[in-house]
Design a protein that fits this description.
The protein contains 16 helices and 26 strands. Helix content is about 35%, strand content about 25%. It has about 500 residues and is an alpha+beta fold. Bound molecules: glycyl-adenosine-5'-phosphate.
């Protein structure tokens, strides 16, 4: 069984995520986060907010999902946000043509698609590629726009579910600039759903039709592309993939060698590296890939993607793009309102440039599950060790900080455990309370969803006011006074301590 199959099975059983509309057979490309998964997702988003918004003093917005057509004409999505598709003449199945041809032909011959529809038709015809469902013939390849279309109001004015959260930030820029200091640089982020009608959604959370993005748009004066504070971190290193080669490079090096577009991009790459380590991605299995010129999106002058190694292969999880003044200029032209701003130092109006950090939450969530997954590990000689699959989540993103268990549901142990639960919850800790089942079984349940600590209330608790804290990764326990539990747990969470 492949790791992704195991993860999918565990995701269903342990309430991480499951297909949408299950009683109706599920809907391809749509997933629900279950009660456990949603807690982890919120923590990932919370940590992003902490690191990319609050600690930097940046702004956060929440803009509309339904976007009128003119906005997306200006951004280029109506004309260019499309993938090539072929349709089976017999069973009408539609398949993404570039992926089909890449899998069946290009990969086998070490070639790459040149971007022309005729080339796809040529390979499909000459190599005799047939519909995988019914073996029928495919028609000619054509472009298929990925946006979900809708209509606003009784007139049903053309509109779309946004394909990225970024456009709402660009159209809000003039007001935020005016209301928040009228100075550059200015950075605005947003966490929200985006929608893409992927032709062949696959690989669970990796290619979805509705997904969550955490995007940051950093507006700056192009003649001042330095970043205050970069000097403090510039010697830190990360792994870069340049023309297929992996190499360790510092923020300073990638800036000086012009691997990144500018110091601002270098600063955010270092920050992303830090963020990924904190949420549990294995740094030996992630890197930043510098995109070739022919891979760069229409709006960008330089792109560096975060890529993560998974059992599905390499997954792109973050796009860093130097979007220049493309979006603000386009919205100025199409709306008839000039979005340039007055810059005091130059005594003139300029169109700000934008550095974008665009992260997908769901792909990251999935990669965390793979990287934190641990097999059953009983010791060959003694038989000791875990006999269940579990998750080694960093405490910062575990669904609950601690599980609280009464040893028995009698003699006042459960009342005491409920009291301790309420006390810890009131101190801001996320606590799972479970009273039934053997204590061993309950420890296993906590491990299985990656809870780092389990606190047990036993008969000694009633006598001397102490409890045991069990550490997830080594199963060892210590006795702590109830009054000291909050401090002890918070200290362990802060230091990512998961063994005694
Ligand atoms: N605003 C720029 C933008 O949207 P992107 O590279 O198309 O850039 C950014 O998307 C991130 O959003 C990706 O790196 C990925 O993590 C996530 N993403 C994009 N399409 C996705 C999909 N179909 N399913 C899940 N996540 C997706």
């Amino acid at each position: 069984m492949q790791l992704h199959d195991k993860i999918f099975e565990l995701a269903l059983k342990r309430s991480f995520f499951f297909p949408s509309n299950e009683p109706y057979g599920g809907t391809g490309g749509f997933y629900e986060y279950g009660p456990v998964g949603v807690l982890i997702k919120h923590k990932i988003e919370g940590l992003w907010r902490e690191m990319f918004i609050k600690s930097e003093g940046f702004h956060e917005v929440e803009t509309s999902i339904v976007t009128p057509e003119p906005v997306l004409v200006a951004s280029g999505h109506v004309s260019s946000f499309a993938d090539p598709v072929v349709e089976c003449a017999k069973c009408n199945t539609r398949i993404r043509a570039d992926t089909l041809v890449e899998e069946r032909h290009y990969h086998l011959h070490g070639e790459k698609w040149d971007g022309k529809l005729e080339s796809l038709d040529h390979v499909i015809e000459t190599k005799g590629i047939k519909c995988p469902k019914c073996k029928g013939d495919f028609g000619k390849a054509h472009m298929f726009n990925l946006m979900f279309q809708t209509g606003i109001g009784g007139e049903r004015s053309p509109a779309y579910a946004r394909p990225e959260t970024a456009q709402g930030i660009f159209t809000s820029f003039p007001r935020i600039f005016k209301n928040h200091g009228t100075k550059l640089p200015l950075a605005v982020g947003q966490v929200g759903r985006s929608f893409r009608n992927e032709i062949s959604p696959r690989k669970g959370l990796v290619r979805m039709r509705e997904f969550t993005q955490m995007e940051l748009e950093y507006f700056f004066n192009p003649s001042e592309s330095s970043f205050a504070g970069f000097g403090d971190v510039s010697s830190e290193k990360m792994t870069m993939k340049i023309s297929g080669e992996l190499q360790e490079m510092s923020g300073k090096e990638i800036t000086e060698k012009k691997v990144s577009s500018n110091e601002i991009m270098s600063y955010f790459l270092l920050k992303e590296w830090e963020f990924y380590k904190k949420v549990g991605i294995d740094e030996k299995r992630m890197w930043f890939r510098v995109l070739d010129d022919n891979e760069i999106p229409h709006y960008s002058k330089g792109n560096i993607d975060m890529e993560v190694d998974t059992s599905f292969g390499i997954v792109e999880t973050i796009g860093n793009a130097y979007r220049t003044d493309f979006d603000l200029s386009q919205h100025s032209e199409h709306s008839g309102n000039n979005l340039s701003v007055f810059v005091e130092s130059e005594k003139k109006k300029i169109m700000p440039h934008v550095l974008e950090v665009s992260m997908g939450v769901d792909r990251l969530f999935y990669c965390i599950l793979e990287h934190c997954y641990r097999e059953k590990d009983p010791d060959k000689n003694t038989g000791a060790g875990k006999e269940w699959e579990w998750f080694d989540f960093p405490p910062a993103i575990a669904p609950y900080h601690v599980a609280v268990y009464p040893l028995m549901t009698k003699d006042g142990l459960d009342e005491k455990a409920k009291e301790v639960t309420a006390m810890l919850r009131s101190k801001g800790l996320d606590v799972m309370y479970r009273a039934s089942g053997s204590i061993g079984r309950r420890y296993a349940r906590a491990d299985e969803v990656g809870i780092p600590y389990a606190l047990t209330i036993d008969y000694d608790t009633l006598k001397d006011g102490t409890v045991t804290i069990r550490y997830r990764n080594d199963g060892k326990q210590e006795r702590v006074k109830i009054d000291d539990c909050e401090t002890r747990l918070k200290e362990c969470i802060k230091n990512q301590k998961v063994t005694l």
